[in-house]
Write a structure and sequence with these properties.
Uridine Diphospho-n-acetylenolpyruvylglucosamine Reductase, domain 2; three-stranded parallel sheet
């Protein structure tokens, strides 16, 4: 399993375009359950919890 660690949202989108099967995670609770019960085994995961663009809440 490959782990992708993008530093920006733009980089994450580029990585996802080049590796469509990559599963984005931001903590991974649901994915870890699936892995532990051997229900899924993704080729790659993409850690997105530290992307600054996704750590903003605003009301419009």
């Amino acid at each position: 399993m490959h782990v992708l660690l993008p530093r920006t949202l733009e980089e994450a989108l580029e990585m996802k375009a080049s590796a469509p099967p990559a599963v984005p995670i931001a903590g991974g609770t649901d994915l870890m359950v699936e892995l532990n019960f051997d229900r899924t085994r993704p080729q790659a995961i993409m850690e997105i919890s530290r992307l600054p663009e996704l750590n903003v809440w605003r009301r419009e």
